[in-house]
Amino acid sequence: MSVPPRRPKAPAGRPPAPYRPGPPRGGAPSHGGGPRPPTGTDENAPGPERRRALPPRGDAPRLRAPSGDLDQLEGRNVVLEALTRNRRKVVKICLDERAKEDEKVAKLLQIAGERRVPIERVPRESLDGVCESGVHNGVIAWAVQLAGYSTQGLLSELDRAGVDPFLILVDEISYEQNLGAILRSALGAGVHAVVVPTQRGKGLTPVVHRVAMGGAEEVPLIREGLSSALATLRRAGVRIIGADMDGAPYDEVPMTGPLAIVLGGEGKGLTHTLRDRCDQIVSVPLAGQLESLNVSVTAGILAFERGRQVRAEGRR
Fold first, then answer.
1. Distance from C-alpha of 282 to C-alpha of 246, rounded to nearest angstrom
2. Thinking of the domain 151-315, which architecture would CATH place it in?
3. Average pLDDT of the chain?
């Protein structure tokens, strides 16, 4: 009869080590009661395959942006909007080397190929290293900055085209998401330009481009002192409506014809200086004991109300 081998004794004075299960086959050591999360993911891969461990960030080469005064565009939709609308030259595109070629990526590659835009396949971690908005969806591009406008220059163009001007002016937007949302609504409502102060607030950052979803490509963002812009609008015969809590209900105020809507800064409303330059003050009536709306929401409501009134006037 065979005898099983005897387990070696522990050294005197030391208790035997307790049994500890090893990591699952093919996995990493346990971390906080479960497997250690991967260092990165491929969001375009289906099912479980999207969770794959990526090389440490330090192993990926850092991207170098092309030289020149360029806008950095982050995200598939943002880059695709810039390519599709073709308002400016896209200089270079960097694409996650493991990105699945879905419909959007295929269209992006097609248009970029037709326009001879250089495309570089890079590790996802390299995109992470230069991303400013926090979301790049595997694509970052650089494009020539959009053409600049002044209020007077825009009014001159609209006058030559025989179009009633429609502008939105906003005093001091600190949150990039708000400016992006205003540009997006402005595009949908037929606004010709958004004017923000020269010194205060945000310009066209990667976050603004991402939230605007093409709005920044089509609707000029004019950086100009609001008092100067309002004086120019008044000389051109543009009616100026301000938005504040004590104004008349917005749906009872005529908004057709040449129009500019003025919104105050985030959380502070219209200043006395801006109110004095307005022909009328309107408000958005609120229920539920709500004190105010986000500035981008107010901008959208008033812009689309103007569109409703213009359509209704055209049907008369």
1. 7
2. 3-Layer(aba) Sandwich (3.40)
3. 83
List the one residue out of 88, 51, 216, 70 whose CA is nearest residue 130: 70
H/E stretch holding 83 reads: helix 76-85
Question: What number is the average pLDDT over the span 124-139?
Answer: 92
Round to whole Å and give the CA distance between 119 and 140.
10
Contact 115, 143 (CB under 8 A): no
Q: Alpha-carbon distance 203 to 145, whole Å?
A: 12
Nearest-angstrom CA–CA distance, 74 and 255: 36
Helix %, strand %, coil % of the chain (to 5)? 35, 20, 45
Q: Write the pLDDT tens digit of every residue in 206-219.
A: 999 999 999 999 99
Return the sign of the alpha-carbon dihedral for residues 295, 300, 305, 306: positive
Amino acid (one-letter) located at 129: G
In which residue are the tokens 């250089």 written? 118
Tokens of 67: 């030289």
CA-atom Rg of the chain in angstroms: 28
Closest CA to 85 of 34, 146, 30, 39: 146
Q: How many CB atoms lie within 10 A of CB 289?
A: 5
Q: Which residues 6+ apart lie within 8 Å of 25 measured at CB?
A: none
Spatial distance between the Cα atoms of 94 and 292, rounded to a whole number of angstroms: 42
Quick one: how far is CA 51 from the chain centroid?
A: 26
- 195 CB contacts (<8 Å, ≥6 apart)? 151, 167, 168, 169, 170, 222, 223, 224, 226, 229
Q: What is the pTM of this model?
A: 0.78
Distance (Å, whole) CA 34 – CA 302? 51
- Sign, CA torsion 120/122/85/220: negative
CATH number, domain 65-144, options 3.30.1330.30, 3.40.50.1100, 3.40.50.300, 3.40.50.150: 3.30.1330.30
The token duo for 53 is 């461990």
Token pair listed for 260 = 């500019």
